[in-house]
Specification:
Chains A, B: Keywords: DNA-binding, Pyridoxal phosphate, Transcription, Transcription regulation. The structure is a homodimer. Chain A contains 18 helices and 14 strands. By secondary structure, chain A is an alpha/beta fold. The first copy, chain A, starts with a helix and ends with a helix.
Chain lengths: 476, 476
């Protein structure tokens, strides 16, 4: 019955479409009245109304309130992927990888991107959670959420933080629109234009993009396999007086290195001596084989603010992050989020996340991810070495390999060559404030399953070996 | 079968709970091994694993990687509504109404809030859209979206904008995390600390909260039933040199007034003469009985930037807004949104919105809303008049009545008295930069169905009649 109704609606829509296509109806013309066209098509008036409404939603016709339907004044310009990014020649800057990978074809191979393929995500659990949501409370589907975000999800997060040894309560925690937005809120709260911010070199390229938006001075310290170079860290704090230090402690992006307890302790001592606030971005926590030291846990959320999200292990479509910090900071950050986006994540999104996290088999899913990633890191590492591309270290977990290209190769030139063949790579200098990482490339091992990428990698590597390094490094 | 499995899991969970409650297992103790406890409970090991995982998700126990499960080191602090807002004595500032209404009980009566009750929203369509999404493409459920937001929803928005006579293409449009976030992005793009921004007096209180976050100087012009007072508008532009003017053209918040064509034209001429950018917040567009003049349509997205969202007519839980503006602005705003939140709205949210908008009966839903609101404005208006509370004007649409209290009544005092009885009101001065609106109150007619509010309204009105006005007006 429903199907026959639907097909009748389609028939009416097609009839109108063909009249417009055939110029029987042209721009601005009034459509046949509901009643007369229903009679002509031998369908019920409600079928015609349904058809007209759908055509209006498509933009082909429009409803003029109180006076029927008219052929739309102009056709819609097509939205093509080509339009994305505005067709400009892309500068290889801190925005470059985000633009290329976010707007790439979902099925395109993206060894440069920072997330797992859909097939690695807990799809069944997400679909079940959505079915539950479709039967859920009305207010979840229609209302704004509370200013700190859904209680159910905050409970689950508190459980994890307490587990880590953090003495936290509800007043220390808030949900945000995304992990990036969590860092942005903290920056808005702590920073003023002209302030100095310290990051690792290399660091996640979007930290650089984010800090540009805050018009601050960015300084960096080299990152070692056990954390930032501590001597230089202490020197920079003394000389540059940064207000803020942004870092990943576990499975550092892009290197995959992990902070050592000794380094963590010295970093905190130096930060205390120079009154520096630290943002610890813990987004890769679940990929660790076993937990490593955390600045937030050592410091007890005194000068360290912890942020995270669910984009890497659960879903990046569920835009949601969190901030754990000192109570008085959270108070202000909650007001700031209300003022700047009228609250946190979508209540429907937080409901889905809480459902998947509490379903029980989430832990098994994450263990499976770790198992698969261990294999992928090994296999991809071997193939890269065979091409003369050396991992800087073999990380304990996660999906990144920070690799050094053969002598004389510039990764920016290689990334340009690869993009010309539709392959998105992440060249070293987008991660480097000092622009000193042109021989490096960040490879996402989970995005290397497609055999075709290896041919493109080899060709772009050959291409960039010919180009002399200096030339392709973008100026600041 | 599934149910029996679930009940067995529950039984195992209860057994562990009671051991912890009875101190047979205490903080830090290792739980029985999966195998032994499965034997003891006569269930399969997988049932015990499921039970332990759920208890871990609840925070009662924790999984130590590789070494089994332990009783969590500390119980979770309860998250109660009392904790929301941090328990401080609320200052009646531009954040006040947001805090009170966002964190209020979903079923609480909130004549002060800015949205419709869940029962007014297209619940069936939302549930259908969620069921469709549960069967949808994997990448929708797991991936980040494109930098400009979902193509399907942008197509529908373009259709509406073209309808209004705007010559727009895909390059003029982007989706944002919310309507407020759209304004915030534009402010970050246009404003620098110390700049001057012009708003209406009264204006939406969150414009004031948002601008505080940008550390700008805020000036205002009185709003008349046909738009801003044009003489004063021209004078303020000449004297104060604002960079930006933020306003609602149709069904202005809080007054419900509508911009007249003559005023619109003069506003644009003056803005051009003084090179002022205008943000036209069109969030109430769908509530108009018939379309009125729009600055964006007159100006052709030259110096006017249009923003909007779906929170008022479709769902506030679907956090999503949009910006329509000049192509070169959109380019930069897209990068800014990637830098500060790594993209726009949740792809799953935009999919649900596009589904509901294109289903066809959305237009009927909105017509029904308009019909109900016309009745509610009349009925609530009559009851208010009977209490000596006079609507400043009867709006053409929407759910706000901007009302003047009887002589000598101060709305801030009235709102405090009402809050003491659990009723959230929106006192005039939170909308007024000049703090000159203490005799006014914004009433949401759709939130007045609960009979009990009228007794509270009367008592708080009596209470504030006794208090002398000046006293309760908050200092700046």
């Amino acid at each position: 019955m429903k199907d026959r109704g639907a097909s009748r609606t389609e028939a009416v829509m097609d009839a109108i479409r063909s009249r417009i296509a055939g110029r029987a109806l042209s721009s601005g013309d009034r459509l046949p009245s509901i009643r007369s066209f229903a009679a002509a098509m031998r369908v019920s008036p409600s079928t015609v109304v349904e058809a007209y409404d759908r055509l209006a939603a498509e933009g082909l016709i429009r409803a003029r309130r109180g006076s029927g339907f008219y052929v739309a004044s102009s056709a819609l310009p097509p939205l093509t992927l080509g339009e994305e990014g505005g067709g400009r020649i892309p500068e290889v800057d801190p925005f470059w990888v985000s633009r290329q990978s976010l707007d790439a074809d979902p099925d395109a191979a993206k060894p440069g991107c920072g997330w797992l393929p859909p097939s690695w995500m807990p799809e069944a659990a997400l679909r079940r959670a959505l079915r539950n949501l479709a039967r859920g409370e009305s207010s979840l589907l229609t209302d704004y959420g509370g200013t700190r975000g859904a209680v159910a999800l905050r409970r689950l997060l508190l459980a994890r933080l307490v587990d880590e040894g953090l003495q936290v309560s509800g007043e220390n925690l808030m949900l945000t629109g995304s992990g990036t937005e969590a860092i942005d809120l903290i920056c808005r709260y702590v920073l003023r234009p002209g302030d100095t911010v310290l990051v690792d070199d290399p660091c996640y390229f979007n930290f650089r993009a984010l800090l540009r938006a805050h018009q601050v001075r960015v300084v960096s310290v080299p990152y070692t396999p056990s954390g930032p170079d501590v001597e230089l860290f202490e020197a920079v704090l003394a000389q540059e007086g940064p207000r803020l230090y942004i870092t990943n402690s576990a499975l550092h992006n892009p290197t995959g290195a992990t902070l050592s307890p000794q380094t963590a302790h010295r970093v905190l001592v130096a930060a205390a001596a120079h009154d520096v606030t630290i943002v610890e971005d813990d987004i890769f926590a679940d990929f660790e084989p076993e937990p490593s030291v955390r600045l937030a846990a050592l410091d007890g959320l005194n000068r360290v603010v912890r942020i995270g999200s669910f984009s890497k292990t659960l879903s990046a479509s569920m835009r949601c992050g969190y901030i754990a910090g000192a109570m008085e900071h959270i108070e202000t950050l909650v007001d700031l989020q209300v003022a700047t986006r009228f609250g946190g994540p979508s209540p429907m999104v937080t409901e889905v996340i809480a459902d998947v996290l509490s379903a029980g088999n989430y832990r098994k899913h994450v263990e499976e991810l770790r198992r698969r990633l261990t294999g992928a890191r090994r296999a991809v590492g071997d193939r890269l070495r065979a091409m003369g591309i050396e991992p800087w270290l073999m990380p304990r977990g996660g999906f990144y390999l920070w690799c050094r290209l053969p002598e004389g190769c510039d990764s920016t030139a290689m990334a340009r060559a690869a993009l010309a063949e539709g392959l998105v790579l992440a060249p070293g200098n987008v991660f480097s404030v000092s622009e000193s990482a042109s021989p490096f490339l960040r490879i996402n091992v989970a995005q290397c399953a497609d055999e075709r990428i290896w041919g493109i990698m080899q060709r772009s590597l050959n291409a960039c070996s010919q180009s002399e390094p200096g030339a392709a490094v973008p100026g600041r």
